[in-house]
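Recap quiz, item 2
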Amino acid sequence: MTTPVHADHDPHSAAPLKTPLYDAHVALGARMVPFAGYLMPVQYEGILAEHAHCRAAAGLFDVSHMGQATLRGPDHRTVARALEALVPADILGLEPGRQRYSQLLNEHGGILDDLMVHRAPGAEDMLGLVVNAACKVADYAHIAARLPEGVLLEIHEERALLALQGPEAVNVLVSLGADVAGWDFMDVGPATIAGIPVFLSRSGYTGEDGFEISVHADTVVGLWEVLLRDPRVRPIGLGARDSLRLEGGLCLYGHDIDETTTPVEAGLLWSIQKRRREEGGFPGADIVLSQIAEGVVRKRVGIRPDGRAPARDGAEIVDENGVAIGVVTSGGFGPTVGGPVAMGYVAAVHARPGTRVGLVVRGKALPAEIVSLPFVPARFHRAPK
Amino acid sequence: MTKYYTEEHEWIAVTGNVATLGITDYAQAQLGDVVFVEVPTVGRKVKKGEETAVVESVKAASEVYSPVTGTVIETNAPLADSPITVNEDPEGAGWFCRIEMSDLAELEVLMDEAAYKTFVEGL
């Protein structure tokens, strides 16, 4: 039998880094694997059980490998304009206490990384950034080299990051003293959990309601233990993180989006607000705006195989005549769906839900259908308007 | 019945000239939750070392190689609806197929249970 190879293992990284929770993961019996230069838990009790628990109660993730940074300058306008030169989201209009999803773009509108941008309540001179682990070194260099005088990038190596995701996440935090019950999806702000100061955002990467918890690395072990003491909470590894986000139709950088895909092709147009579509002024704006106006040649889509065999990243997508029309960029088994699910890019003429396609797995075209995303409806907490 | 093992974590249970093929408990633990199994078609000729079945976990696909040459005479049909059997009973109900062997001498290079146990302990 071939041993499974984890595609995200970087063979050039001789000595993988550890998050402050490494020993805690090992003590819980986690299987540790190299991921983006770090030794990370891929699973504890098993991916299917962890996936189901996160959808049913609350799952706790260590995502301390991700990059946390701050942009600081004289005033919001200056800092926001500096970031808007690099991303297509409306950062100027980001209200205090709110977060937005965006992408660092190259001059062709290709995605260098995707990131979260937040403005803390009352913040008039700074923005918070959370970027992908595998991209963070390149991101920081890219950003720092393009900042105007007076705007500085501060990298927060001293901070760890947890995610608590699932329908019980809010109740767990409230029971530990965090006053977050009234928060909306993408609200951010400081709080305390069992007396430990944290910075929260009501967001995540599972399609569930939940929170990302930024905390000082010196106190993260205590916080991790406090959260796990709640019987509603179980630790979740990167394996279930991937199956959860795939069912949620959320992009994984380096797979579903990369330097060759634009936000329009990736179906992320919702993250480019009206003013930016009108004004442009971000890298690759000419290409991105013309794609918005005229349409794209290829699109990211959801795909459901008819049978039980998963189609993985890299599987060719063919039309009913066997002609290549695209490629799978993420694929696997969706535990909540109860069958295989995939995302990929297809020629725009084949992108309509209901279109019959084939996914080439081990030389055979397995019948499948284009479907709308997500596979599992998002359950973000949005207050009624 | 005699059981033999490979360094790739397959086992075969041999009765007469028929070998039942599966993966070991060590292998299933490494894979994690199995969500799909592809078994060969009955009548297929397989060569020693040839890819004969596929097991897919949530994360990845793994090929299973036949340690012997022969013809597939039976497959474990219930696995299609219950792939998790490979995790629950890898060296019993989680078998993949039975192969009628054409060269019994191929068994000589395989490990017995004690040798496989020592091999796994060294990993």
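Strands of chain B lie at 2-5, 10-15, 18-23, 34-38, 45-46, 51-57, 61-65, 70-75, 97-101.
Chain B has one domain: 2-111.
End of item.
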